[in-house]
Amino acid sequence: MASRTLSKQFARTYATKALKIGLIPGDGIGREVIPAGKQVLEALPSDLGLKFEFTELKAGFELFKQTGTALPDETVEVLQKSCDGALFGAVSSPTTKVEGYSSPIVALRKKLGLYANVRPVKSVEGIGRPVDMVIVRENTEDLYIKEEKLYEKDGQKVAEAIKRITERATTKIGAIALEIALQRQAIRELGGASLHSQPTLTVTHKSNVLSVSDGLFRETVRKLYDSNPAKYSGVQYKEQIVDSMVYRMFREPEIFDVVVAPNLYGDILSDGAAALVGSLGVVPSANVGDNFAIGEPCHGSAPDIEGKGIANPIATIRSTALMLEFMGHPEAASKIYAAVDANLKEDVIKTPDLGGKSSTQEVVADVIRRL
Ligand code: ATP
């Protein structure tokens, strides 16, 4: 595979041992799609030389209701001490504040130092609008530090929230976004189909208004890019104000390759981008740190279809491939991507969210058949 890959950052020596994967189904359809990811890993062709050992781990709102804890210490410890990677399904989000409950995936990102949320959004060749982009969202700061306060002034309520951008976190997210741009190019040069002939990084910001905070984000990524021309000169560098980014992403999504954004803009852009490719049920993501990656489908627990056996497993299957990429196994990942693309392209065995009549298991079986 490409010599210049993210995998190097993560690669350990696995020649003789099985990769240990933590499986955290969580709530709702998470319990139906995580087994799909497991089945696909088990079905990978043996010539790839990969073996897996799985550990089921607990987390979620249901667990919180039963035990008072949404993320047991044991889950975190097993992931930290004995897993090479993990798959996370979904958690239900209570619509009103529930005392003592907070999202286990948000906590996991913090505890495991998973500072990047990586979300590839790709259409299938020949179907709909061409899209082939990756949104790289900073995962640890911005308005999500949740430093909010409410007070009264002149008899009226005032709410304030702190938006924190640090040079340290921005440098890390900029670096991983640039690495992803280089890795995508390396894969393209090996013959991977793509809309792009040259890697491009688009930095999203609102520094025309937030000149200090978003200004720091923009300047920091630019400084990083300029600091190593030998490495990054092949990458085109662009900047885009977030509102016009949204407009252009819907008008001409095909021009975007890698997009890097602070936490809030990244959140909004990545859900918007999912709408470009049909269903939440096909969009994967990975939570990535320096030493660990958790694959996670972008959708939630989908209580409306829970237990019906019709959840689309493709977002999870693609998240499994993304996890493998960050663990240093791009060959295995590309086999999975190709099998999924072939299923989507044929457009026959598909779940109801894509207009089909097939079950989760029928889609899994079809993807496995194509591996
Ligand atoms: P949560 O509270 O967990 O966020 P939600 O229903 O508000 O749940 P999603 O789970 O993301 O949010 O679901 C939004 C819509 O997309 C629902 O109608 C759901 O059925 C559909 N959906 C989400 N994921 C899938 C999937 N994998 N397959 C089919 N439909 C899906």
From TrEMBL:
Coiled-coil features, chain-numbered ranges: none
A Pfam family: Iso_dh
Keyword Nucleotide-binding: no
Enzyme class: oxidoreductase
UniProt EC number: 1.1.1.87
Domain Isopropylmalate dehydrogenase-like: start-end pairs: 20-367
GO aspect biological process, one term: isocitrate metabolic process
Assigned keywords, A-Z: Amino-acid biosynthesis, Lysine biosynthesis, Magnesium, Metal-binding, NAD, Oxidoreductase, Phosphoprotein
Pathway in which this enzyme or protein is active: Amino-acid biosynthesis; L-lysine biosynthesis via AAA pathway; L-alpha-aminoadipate from 2-oxoglutarate: step 4/5
Domain of life according to the entry: Eukaryota
Cofactor list: Mg(2+)
Gene Ontology molecular function, alphabetical: homoisocitrate dehydrogenase activity; isocitrate dehydrogenase (NAD+) activity; magnesium ion binding; NAD binding
KW Transmembrane helix (keyword) present: no
PROSITE patterns reported for this sequence: IDH_IMDH
Native source organism of the sequence: Ogataea parapolymorpha (strain ATCC 26012 / BCRC 20466 / JCM 22074 / NRRL Y-7560 / DL-1) (Yeast)
Catalytic activity: (2R,3S)-homoisocitrate + NAD(+) = 2-oxoadipate + CO2 + NADH
Descriptive protein name: homoisocitrate dehydrogenase
Family listed: Belongs to the isocitrate and isopropylmalate dehydrogenases family.
SMART domains per record: Iso_dh
